[in-house]
Known about the structure:
- One of its GO terms (molecular function) is heme binding.
- Keywords: Heme, Iron, Metal-binding, Monooxygenase, Oxidoreductase.
- This is Protopanaxadiol 6-hydroxylase-like.
- The chain is α+β, with helices and mostly antiparallel strands.
- It has one domain: CATH 1.10.630.10.
- About 45% of the residues lie in helices and about 10% in strands.
- It has 17 helices and 14 strands.
- The chain has helices at about 15-20, 25-35, 55-65, 75-80, 90-100, 105-110, 115-125, 135-155, 160-180, 195-215, 220, 235-240, 245-260, 265-275, 275-290, 320-325, 365-385; strands at about 40-45, 45-50, 70, 135, 185, 190, 295-300, 305, 310, 315-320, 385-390, 400, 405, 410-415.
- Strands 1-2-10-7-3 form a 5-stranded mixed β-sheet. The protein has a 3-stranded antiparallel β-sheet with strand order 4-14-11. The chain has a two-stranded antiparallel ribbon with strand order 5-6.
- Helix 8 crosses helix 13.
Amino acid sequence: MSKLPGNAGVSLLGDKTLDFYRDPVFFCLQRIEKHSSRVFQCRLMNKPTVFICSVEGARELLCEKSNIFLKDPTDFMTNIYGDTVVTMNGEEAFLLRLSLNHLFTGTCLESSTNYMSSVCDHCLKNLSISAEPQCVYSIFKRLGAELVLGLFLNVRAEDQPEVFQEIIELCTEHWHGLNSIPVNVKVPWWTSGFAKALDARSKLMEIIKDKLKNETQGFVGALGSVPFPNSGSAAQHLLLFISALIPKALASLLTSFTLALGGPEQRESRHEAIRNPDHLHRVLLEVQRLWPPFIGGRRITEKESTLADFCVPKDYDVMYLSYFIHRDPEVFQQPDSFLPERWSGRNAGQEHLLCSFGNGPRSCIGSTLTEIFIKEACRYLLKNYDWCLDPPSQDLQYKWLPVSRPANLPSLSFTRLDQTVLE
Length: 423
């Protein structure tokens, strides 16, 4: 057992939160090089924090020792969304996850596939009509919003455009408030972002409760059969499932996919992804590896333990950084290169090495749904379009918080495949 590299600093004066949020990739890279270790400590949010940037450390944290490294019950996600399958711990979280799981698998999932196809057609069918380049991130975010509101609330943009738009605006205001200073202040002519978020939350909860009361079909109707721990749990979960977070994550992945496979140099790879589902799967794994939608996650240490043979004291926070875990040179050769073929041969079936949506018993409950939808959207793009950056030279540097995407939203031009000559 070794001592953690780095130091946890002193209260307030030693805090590095601002440095981390300003540029999390540079922050971690600097310390990895300084300590010659992908596990180190410093002070974040004024708490001693261990940073995990290795596959070995992530596997222990998220899988083997998940009963020691827990979700923080004081986390802002709990304050905003309440007790949900994402924020709870222990047996209560396990039983709730078990109760909800059938809604994201099997026949419930199969019944959603037709709607997924219709959403893709509705949102993506006109990409080549405009003579102007398209801001794909915004298009994909709209695509994700139509998916989640249609699946989880039975609100479809084509059938109820005004209701759909109202919910979208409330979800956006709620999300923006999550990323503001958590001060609930209202004075004449000014209201804090956090207070606006709480107001938006109240209005969303009214809509959700009305849906739970009156809808009998689809996901919202099926929630009535779930044995939730209290009467408000169903509404709290729906608030989480329709949050702006999910469309942003879907838009992040789809934007990275179009950038990775854009241009004439990737044309053969696009054609292969149409012909071979395994190749598309490998491409999407590599997209997720290099550009995870979430840079990482956080846990709190319930009792003293070890990670990657380093001692972690009780009550320390632990941050796992997907960006660096996915680039661990001990596991991934040429870690910064886009190489879909790395997931073939003896590496096939190694998806557990990725932690974009968590891993182990607390992984994202909707990961299968996400994978099916992302593949549906990608297949639609591949079968209908060629695309490239327009203009060809753009700044594609990513920002990583709160959800990853290029800092300057890229623009692409799309051409219908029936307008091109395929070689």
